[in-house]
Every structure is written in C-alpha cells, then in structure tokens.
Amino acid sequence: MTGANRGLGRALVTALLARGAAKVYAAARRVETVADLAAADRRVHPLRLDLTDLEQIARAAQTATDATMLINNGGSLHFADPLTGDLAAIDADLRTNFVGPLALSRALVPVLEGNGGGAIVNTLSLVVLGAVPAMGGYSASKAAAASMTQALRAQLAGRKVTVHGVFPGAVDTDMIRDFAIPKTSPADVAAAILDGVEAGEESIFPDPMARQGHRAWREDPAAFERQMGSM
After folding, report:
1. Where are the alpha helices (DSSP H) in the chain?
2. What is the Cα Rg of the chain in Å?
C-alpha cells in the first residue's frame, strides 16, 4: 500500500485490517509518518518507499515477498495547467502518478504470481474521463496510469493477477480540503474500493461524485469533457 500515511491510504490500511488482513505493508516516503499505525497493530509493517526512487522500489519488492495485493495509492498533485504550468511540476506528477506505480507493478508481479496470484489496485481519478485544465499535469498523469492499468490487465489475463482501476471523485483529504465542494470521507471510499475488488469489478467508482460523473460521461462524453474543462 503506497501513500499509507494519510488520507485515503491511511483509511485503506484501517479497512484492510478490519477485514482481517494478516499483514499490511504501509509504504510512505517517511516511515515515521506510519509509525503510529504499526504501534496500534502489529500486522502493520512500515516500508520506506519513494515512488520516484527505483532502488527503493526494488528493495520494497524484495521485502514484501508474501504480498498478494498491491494498492498503488500514493500520488502527487501540482496545480499546473498545460500552457503555462511549470514543466517540472508536471514532470513530478507524471513520475509519481504514472512511472512510479508502473515500476512498482513490474517489480511486484513476480511476487504476486509466486504467491499464487493476487490483485493490483490503481487509484486513478475521475479526471481521467475529463481533464481539469488547472491541474493539467495531474490529469495527464492519471490518464497515463489508467492506460497502463488497461495494458497490465490485458497482459496479466489468465495469470491469476487481477487489475483494478479506481476512479474517485472528490475525497475529503488534504489534497483538496480547501475546495468548497461536496466530498466523501476516506473511510467510505476505502470501503467501496475493497468491496469493488472483492466483487471483481475492473473499474471502481467509489463515491457519489464518481458514479454521477461516470454516468454523465457514458451519456455524452463531449459534454462531460466541457463540464470538467470549465472547472
């Protein structure tokens, strides 16, 4: 579990434990930020992991040799629009939200297969279906991650590793806490994600905004794109 130190990641750790997980690797750039989780439950194992550090990714795979599920939840959000935004910020979003999860998936697939199969769960975003210009780099990075999710699913078909894409709307986390829009609690979103994985859903829309947005996109993709583009 990447990004386990706060928000949705922390809620997912709690939900996994409540559902009887034997062990949860709580990965974060700074392991001290998940120390309280480990202190509260010995099934939590802190794991230092920077998604932009390929050596740390390799070490994580060597440590988590009993893993049966990878949840790519860690992420980066810079408000950088395509025309005037800082290219370094856009690059940071791409490296954290796309390249990092891809590298970690590549490293963990042999582990999952060696343990008899498992699941890869990629936390994406509703902006995959309609980009928000003010966060153009983030939107592009999540769209790339969504495409990677589909490609992994095709490659892993028949290899006992399922691949799930999660498309949340507004979740009440630090990333968007200052936005005056309806948000869903991380605990509710975490529960919906795990329910979706257990049900075998390939695409999971875990909150009311996500489900409403998905319906609007299916009915009229161009109109939904314009709606998101006006934000």
Report:
1. 7-18, 35-40, 54-63, 87-94, 100-114, 136-156, 186-198, 208-219, 221-229
2. 17
Closest CA to 167 of 208, 134, 133, 136: 208
The token pair that represents 92 in the structure block: 């940071």
Helix axes 7-18, 186-198, angle to 10 degrees: 50
Q: Which residues contact 93 (CB under 8 A, 6 or more apart)?
A: 76, 77, 78, 80, 137, 138, 140, 141
C-alpha 182: how far from chain center: 21
Q: What is the pLDDT of residue 61?
A: 97
State the sign of the Cα–Cα–Cα–Cα dihedral 146, 105, 187, 133: negative
CB contact set of 78 (below 8 Å; sequence gap of 6+): 85, 86, 89, 90, 92, 93, 135, 137, 138
Give the chain's end-to-end CA distance (angstroms, integer).
31
The type of residue at 128 is V
At 19-54, the pLDDT tens digits run: 999 999 999 999 999 999 999 999 999 999 999 999
Could you tell me the two tokens for 201?
A: 């859903």
Secondary structure class of 163 (helix, strand, coil)? strand
- DSSP secondary structure letter of residue 171: B
